[in-house]
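Posting for a labmate who doesn't have an account.
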Amino acid sequence: MRLLYTDKHPMFEARNIGCYDNVALRADTAGGCTHIDISFRSSPRRPYFCTMELLKNVSIAEFTSFKIGGKADYFCRARSVDELKEALAFARRHSLPIFILGGGTNMLLSDDGFRGVVVKIELHGVKWGEASVVAAGENWDSFVAETVARGLWGLENLSGIPGTVGAAPVQNIGAYGVEIAEVLEWVEALDMRTGEIKQLSNADCAFAYRDSIFKKQEGKNFIITRVAFRLQKDGAPNLQYKDLAEYFSSGGAPTLQQIRRAVLEIRARKFPDLKTHGTAGSFFKNPIISKEKFEELKKRFPGLSGFPVPSGVKVPLAWILDKICGLKGFEQDNTALWKDQPLVLVNKGGASASAVSALADNIAHIVKEKTGIEIEREVNFLC
C-alpha cells in the first residue's frame, strides 16, 4: 500500500487492502511528494481491512470550536476500531505522540500546532435496548434529542452541550443539576498499551466533579470507543437547578420535551452561538472551597451562594467573576469574557491560543487577589 500526501494537495485515497499484525514502513520522496510504503508480513490470525486516510500538515483550528491553533504533523479520521489501531501503530513506529480528538469543543490548541498524530474519532452507531449503547463519535446532542423522542429519562438536562459522546465521560459533563455519572453504566475503551478492548464500570471510571479516571495518569492510555447509558421510561423531572425551577415555577410537572426545550432556551440566552463565535464553552470549573472559606466569603459578599458537596462547598464562579471581580464582558487582545456568561471565554476574531491563555491567567490572578480562591481550567490545552 502506498499512502500519498503533498503540500499542494494534502488529500489522498487509501485503497482497501488486507492489513495484518506485522507492519513494515519505509519513507521516501519522489515527484515533489512524500510517500510511505507499507508492507505487510502475513499474520493470518487477525486479518482485517483498513481504509484510513493519513493527512500531513493539517490545520486543526477548523476542527475545534475555538477556531484557534496551528497544524498537526499528521491527521486521520478513525471510523472503526481497526482504523484506530492502525493510527496507533503508525504513531508508535515513528515514535510520535498521539492526540485523540472528539468534537473539539473542550480544547485549546497551541499556536505552534501538534508535533505528532491527531486522530479524530468518527465511530458511529447506537444500539437501543435495556441499556443504550452509543459509539464514541456520535454527536452528543443528537443522541440526547433521540432519547427524549423515545421517552427515555436521564439526559434531558444535558441538552445542547456540544461535542461527542466519547468525550462526555472524560469530563463527566454536567449541567442544570445532572452529571453523566448518574446514568452511565459502562464505558468501552481501547487500551493503547495492549491493544485490547476493555469495559470499565461506572465505579471504574472514578467520576468526580468534571473529572474521571480518563483525565488521570492511570487512565490516559484509554481511548473511549462506546458508552452505555441506563435510562428510564418512568423517570421524573429534575428541576433542582435554579434556572429550571424558575422556568417551570407556574406549576405542573413538565414533560421530557418541555424540559429539553427549556434547557435549550436557557443555554441560548447564556452561551454564544458556535456558528458566530469561537469558544470552548465554560473555560473554568466552579471552585470547591472549604466550609470555613465559604463562611468567610459569605460575610464579605452576602449574595454569594453555595452548594454543599462531600469535599466542601461548590460556589458559582460566574457570580464571582461578575459581582465581585466586575469582569463580565471584559476584553483583552481579541478575546473576551462573554457578556451573558463570564465563565465563557470567546475568540472575537483572529485571537491566538496564547492570547486566550493570557486572558485566562489574568482572570485567575484577579480572582485569587479578590477572594483568595485558586480557580482551575476546565478546557484542555494541547501543546
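Reply:
Got it, the C-alpha cells are right above this. Residues 273-382 form a domain with the Uridine Diphospho-n-acetylenolpyruvylglucosamine Reductase; domain 1 fold (CATH 3.90.78.10).
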